[in-house]
Write a structure and sequence with these properties.
Radius of gyration: 37 Å
Structural class: alpha+beta
CATH architecture of the largest domain: 2-Layer Sandwich
Number of helices: 13
Number of strands: 17
Strand order of the largest sheet: 5-4-9-8-7-6
Strand content: 25-35%
Order of helices and strands: HHEEEHEEHHHEHEEEHHEHEEHEEHHEEE
Shape: elongated
Helix content: 40-55%
CATH superfamily of the largest domain: Histidine kinase-like ATPase, C-terminal domain
Number of domains: 4
Distance between the termini: 51 Å
Length: 432
């Protein structure tokens, strides 16, 4: 308690108690005197330094032959840490019972130790039925034996596995589950158990299938419509070509020129819809930035322009598979619109902890007026569809693109990648 003997000898014991526990002590001591013993009564004591500890109070009174009190024995045990641990465990248990995921704990022999209410609802086994059973008797994946072995190996080798598969309930019905299994280890790294978290994703999977069907139908409709419009444009273009061969008055020639321009514009729009309908159709993947730049540089005629690729070798971004088209657009735009470009430079830049891929050239740059509409479709000078499409492709995984170059001194496209969307797979590292 922190007191010396002389500090406490002769003082009433209740002087050492927290104010809120004095009434409880009086009640406890009355029982003690009446019954001759008290077991595991909880009291809170104030130590000399002002800190408080929770104690378990056990006492016994011994009497002499005449029935008079001979001795009083009291033992106080500090239970502060034990009570705090109990409270933490109770809080954890309450939280696990209220989460919207099935949570299961198993020991090293895969015997279930804990099975929360959501697990009861999801798998239809009550906790009292589940505890003590092998986990593979309760969570039965509707997958091949080879797949099950691969999952077990992954958990054993890496300590974790997560993914989706169909699971059979107690009544035999199936549902689609998202499952995350994590190995639990002791301080020495030995496996002592496993925690499994799962939830029902059946409705989400059905929605995904329905969405794919709808997208397929819309893409088919778009393709048919686009084909028909293109055919009509060919007829219109042919008629305009025949008309151009006739002798027309100046006013009619001007109308013909505007009509031909409109046909070209409509044709470009139709081509754009074909490109845009593919954005987001395929799942994002990890892609090596340096290789993307190198591959797309091969698909354009650089001429006298020097392309410098300083993106570190191991940099990968998580992005739509069409991201290659974005790099093609940046290179192509520099060639076609930079006017005096001699060098096109790709590199990485770290600013305020944010990593960005930079595409910079030394051409004429982009005027302040054009910067405002640069990433809207249809902006001037032919940039529009390509840069708008590039922005849309990148935005699928939270990547942004902006132009920060100085007009007259070159264009500078900054592609900002969120932390979770960039990884380094080689020895090369980015300095912070």
């Amino acid at each position: 308690m922190g007191y010396d003997r002389e500090d406490v000898i002769g003082r009433p014991f209740e002087d050492l108690l927290s104010p809120g526990y004095k009434a409880k002590y009086i009640e406890c001591f009355s029982t003690f005197k009446r019954e001759g013993a008290v077991l595991d009564a909880e009291l809170q004591i104030v130590r000399k330094d002002g800190s408080e500890i929770l104690v378990s109070f056990n006492g016994k009174i011994s009497y002499d032959e005449k029935g008079e009190v001979k001795q009083t024995h009291c033992v106080f045990i500090d239970i502060t840490e034990r009570k705090q641990a109990e409270e933490r465990n109770q809080l954890l248990a309450s939280a696990l019972e209220q989460v919207n995921n099935a949570v299961v704990f198993a020991n090293r022999d895969d015997d279930v130790l804990y099975w929360n209410k959501m697990a009861e609802s999801l798998y239809q086994w009550k906790a009292e039925e589940a505890i003590g059973k092998k986990i593979n008797e309760l969570v039965v994946p509707d997958i091949s034996l080879d797949q099950a072995h691969r999952i077990s190996r992954t958990v054993r080798d890496t300590g974790r596995w997560e993914g989706e598969f169909r699971v059979r309930r107690k009544d035999g019905s199936l549902f689609d589950a998202y499952v995350s299994d994590t190995m639990i280890k002791d301080a020495q790294g030995n496996r002592i158990g496993m925690v499994g978290i799962s939830n029902d994703v059946t409705m989400r999977k059905r929605a995904e299938v329905a969405l794919k069907v709808v997208n397929k139908k819309l893409n088919l409709l778009s393709s048919i419509t686009r084909h028909d419009i293109k055919n009509q444009l060919m007829v219109l273009d042919g008629n305009l070509t025949l008309m151009a061969k006739r002798h027309l008055v100046p006013a009619s020639e001007e109308l013909l020129r505007k009509s031909e321009s409109a046909v070209d514009r409509i044709s470009a729009m139709i081509d754009f819809t074909k490109e845009y309908e593919n954005v987001g159709v395929q799942a994002p993947i990890w892609q090596n930035v340096r290789l993307l730049v190198e591959e797309e540089a091969k698909n354009v005629v650089l001429g006298p322009i020097k392309l410098v690729n300083d993106v570190p070798i191991g940099i990968e971004i998580y992005a739509d598979p069409l991201t290659a088209k974005m790099f093609h657009n940046l290179i192509d735009n520099a060639i076609r619109h930079g006017v005096k470009v001699t060098t096109l430079h790709f590199f990485m830049e770290v600013t305020d902890g944010t990593r960005a891929i930079i595409c910079e050239d030394d051409g004429v740059g982009i005027s302040s007026d054009m910067k405002k509409e640069l990433f809207t479709h249809g902006s001037g000078k032919g940039h529009g569809f390509g840069l708008f499409l590039s922005s849309e492709i990148l935005s699928i995984t939270g990547i942004s693109i902006e132009e920060n170059g100085e007009p007259g001194k070159g264009a500078k496209f900054v592609i900002k990648v969120p932390a979770e969307g960039l990884r380094i797979t080689k020895e090369k590292r980015i300095s912070n």
